[in-house]
Amino acid sequence: MDSVLSSESVAAGAPGTGAGGMYVRDSVRQSVKLLIVGHFAVGKTTLVGTLSEIRPLRTEERMTQAGAPVDDLSGVPDKTHTTVAMDFGRLTLSDRLVLYLFGTPGQGRFKRLWEDLSRGALGALVLVDTRRLDQSFEIMDLVERHGLPYAVAVNAFDGAPVFPEAEVREALDLHPATPLVTCDARDRASSARALIALVDHLIATDREAS
């Protein structure tokens, strides 16, 4: 897989690199699917939009009182919309390779849709929030159950507590080989570094398996 995907190609990807900024180049012969996952209101939609070279597809709906019993707004009182299907973005990495990003809904009631989106994915970037680390357990269980290699990115929300890496690893019960990075989903360079951490992990995992 390292001949197809590299951290250098992710770093070089830039908005507008696709043909006309909208359509995939005619020269593209290979595509890679990655998931951006995490619990409710962790920043998945923001990260996909930050990295995508095209206007991302979003399936957000306004939150209503009907969802109040199941959508915990602790720590995110200003959130007014939520993803109900998926986010979709694209990043052209070279003349022959394009990366597709699929942001999954974070609520448990969309589990079946999450499982459908995971088909064909090479791996997942798991976003977490230090204010609500316990809410990440169910998502990480899903990722592991589907056998997807993954990296974890702590989305640095304003005012969120900062913990030593060792404490976050222990809290999430991460395998020593699982990458753990910090990012700001609003910043393209920071988000790209998180994606690069996942790509490097996928390459290493592929080499170990071959």
UniProtKB/TrEMBL annotation:
Keywords: GTP-binding, Hydrolase, Nucleotide-binding
One Pfam family, short name: ATP_bind_1
The keyword GTP-binding is annotated on this UniProt entry: yes
Classification via InterPro entries: Gliding_Motility_GTPase, Gpn, P-loop_NTPase
Residues of the signal peptide: none
Coiled coil: none
Gene3D superfamilies in alphabetical order: P-loop containing nucleotide triphosphate hydrolases
Keyword GTP-binding: yes
Matches recorded under PANTHER family: ATP/GTP-BINDING PROTEIN-RELATED, GLIDING MOTILITY PROTEIN MGLA
Entry's family note: Belongs to the GPN-loop GTPase family.
UniProt-recorded name of the protein: ATP/GTP-binding protein
Record organism: Actinomadura miaoliensis
